[in-house]
Design brief:
3-methyladenine DNA Glycosylase II, Chain A, domain 3; about 10% strand; about 35% helix; Alpha-Beta Plaits; two-stranded antiparallel ribbon; 10 helices; single chain; alpha+beta
Amino acid sequence: MLYAIIVLGGIGLTASFLLGMAAKKFSIDVDPKVEEIENALLGANCGACGYAGCAALAKAIVVEENVSISSCIPGGPEVARKIGAIMGVEAKIQEKHIAKVFCSAGHNEAKIRFKYRGIFDCKPASLLANGNKKCEFGCLGYGSCIKACPFDAISMGPAGIPIISEEKCKSCGKCIEVCPHSVIRIVPAKNHVHVLCNSLDKASKVKKSCTVGCIGCGVCKKVCAEDAIKIENFLAKIDYEKCIECLKCVEKCPKKIIKQLS
């Protein structure tokens, strides 16, 4: 019995020694900047930067070339400045962007083809005839974006259309990834006039599907002195770089689908 204890103890000590030697020999020196940058990041591990998580981004900024110190989109200018200070470079501050839901057809506006009784989630709902609404481009309202948002920036509005908080939104794009109808888009935060419709149907079909859909009439384009609006695939689209927010399009839109949001 004593002999067995001595043998096992010896094996344990030998194994510990060998493991210690191996760890020392094969250890990789980590640049302290990596840890500093990781601490400066939000720690959300949202993946908006294109890397697996904050730790991976921190390492890439230090080790790889041409990785922008502004890669953390949710962190915005504040995090970029912190990383710039660590790396000893000046941060190029990017314009703030936010996510917007480009659909206004809630419970009272969207016309329904059938009553959906499946899983309360947009993706499985869209697999059944592309959704239960007559408009196949509109928001389904089952909240996939709410579940996907790592910053608790999205809530469901009373009309069945998600509401995105400008203060909380970090434009990480997670909501866009899970939206089956591509209703959510990232837009400049400084712009407040938007065409809140996503339909690419002709006017005749839009009128049968929704009471507030864009009919592509072109009135907004005609009244825009800055040539900031174009009609593409029967849908009005605003060029945010040209738009001066004169609000003429908001006033003249017959469907009241162009709105100024605060």
